[in-house]
Amino acid sequence: MTATQTPTLVDHLVIGAGFGGLATAIKLDEAGETDFVVIEKDSDVGGTWHINTYPGAECDVPSQLYSYSFALNPDWTKVYSPQQEIWEYTRRVAEESGTLDRFVFDTAVRDAVWDAGAQRWNVTVEGPQGLREYAARTVTSAAGGLSEPKLPEIAGIESFAGEVFHSARWNHDVDLKGKRVAVIGTGASAVQIVPELQKVVGHLDVYQRTPNWIIPRNERAFTALEKAVFRHVPGAQRLVRSAVYGTLEARVPAFARFPQLMRAVEMQGKKNIAKGIEDPELRAKVTPDYRAGCKRILISNKWYPALDADNVDLVTDPIASITESGIVTSDGVERPIDVLVIATGFYVTDPPIAAHVTGREGRTLADVWDTEGMAAYKGTTVNGFPNLFFLVGPNTALGHSSIIFIIESQVKYVVDAVRTLRRRGLGAVEPTRAAQDDWVADIRRKMKPTVWQTGGCASWYLDKFGNNTTLWPGQTFTFRGHLSQFDVEKYAVEALRTSPAPTKIKE
Ligand code: N01
């Protein structure tokens, strides 16, 4: 796909305006790398926190860790923040950063192709004005690890005549009051949605394939005093943030080295079940048979009581098909519904953006990853794809702490790489195959004893080869240590053949 106009030259093109893309823009700007453009398919900043507006959407990472280190937020209202508050925070940070003039909204990246001669990425984007082309020295993909909804492949799903939508694309025009509703999936999204739906719908069927370990959510509002302290006492909020960070990191050995310690979490989960559900049969249905932590541990005080409510049925028979008017399970029973909510998660180990990126040898990143499994050097750069940086790339997601810590570590590395390119007069850098292979082998070795790899469940952490290519298998500060400096000696480099474009983009 190509546009007809002359490409706009930019130094840097960033894909996505969520936490990752926004941080990249801010840090490039601070480094004097002001010639960049951020392409966002949504209509505003915020990424997942702008798009996910389902009822009950809240973060399950403590608020104190859910802000940039360079823009703490003393105004969080609760220990765990609601979606709207997080989105408003990103919007405020974006406005205050003075970078919004270089963000292009409602525009999707269609193709990014490496032009070895020009040492640039030719990027075709599509927005309200049609196709447009950029030629960028570097591309940073901050498209998000959990952004592209994955729909289940269920026979007949297209024949359903009622309203149907994915949890991440909530249709607020549909009035659910008194309706017969089904939710397919019981992951982090469903666990928040179901208790809200239970209050308004006539009847709710929740289709569970695998139960999750769910522990209590220690939720509360911050007091006026706490908020005043965060705002006015120098260093106080940073201190609290460090304490929360330390508490979460202290749990890593149980996930990574001694999964038998996760029994303590299972005890908490079982108590949560006993507290929320009266019916012994229902209790048995929601009790997982694998090690806690194998799938993301969920937190909720409302999920079990909602399942136990009179207007809710938990259906554990496998779904056989979907008809015009309902869902049929393997026992032949059809349950009629008016609205179908699909909470079946996202493309994670096969990120759709990879299909749009073509590297040095003319192969797409999707093709490479489909053959070899998702892999990147330091979770950020990929052999065969010069000057491409991936935020929240392979083995960078977390099962225990805040992804923003990882994002900031990666952004620092990207900015350092950009500075290295400029300082040394380089036109292209890409990690050597050996560097990438060694990195991936080390991850695999560290991943082996973890509950995330061997906890006895199927999860979105694992790819089609059974490898955990999504999570970082250790403490986040070790990741940050690895990325503290751009290690150019691990890269194949090319001198710059053309002078950098001086164009200033003002969209
Ligand atoms: O998606 P999921 P999610 N037929 O993939 C089931 C983050 N997040 O959107 O377990 C029937 O976890 C599937 O069953 P199974 C967080 O990192 C954070 O809920 O595969 N069922 C599972 O129950 C989270 O982990 C927050 O057997 C099918 C569910 O659908 C991640 O996003 C909030 C099926 C999918 O669960 C994803 O969460 C929300 C099929 N064909 C999300 N296919 C917070 O911070 C799948 N399922 C609070």
What is the strand and helix layout of this fold?
Elements: E1 8-15, H1 19-30, E2 36-39, H2 48-51, H3 83-97, E3 103-104, E4 108-115, E5 120-127, E6 130-141, E7 163-166, E8 180-184, H4 188-200, E9 203-207, E10 214-215, H5 224-232, H6 236-249, H7 252-256, H8 263-276, H9 280-285, E11 298-299, H10 303-307, E12 312-315, E13 319-322, E14 326-329, E15 334-336, E16 339-342, E17 357-358, H11 365-372, E18 388-390, H12 403-424, E19 426-431, H13 433-447, H14 451-454, H15 476-482, E20 491-495
Parallel strand pairs: 1-2, 1-6, 2-3, 4-17, 6-18, 7-16, 8-9, 8-16, 9-12, 10-11
Antiparallel strand pairs: 4-5, 5-6, 13-14, 14-15, 19-20
Helix pairs in contact: 1-12
Bound molecules: 3-acetylpyridine adenine dinucleotide (N01).
Task: Tell me briefly what this model is.
InterPro entries: FAD-bind_Monooxygenase_sf, FAD/NAD-bd_sf, Flavin_mOase-like. This protein is of the alpha/beta class and 507 residues long.
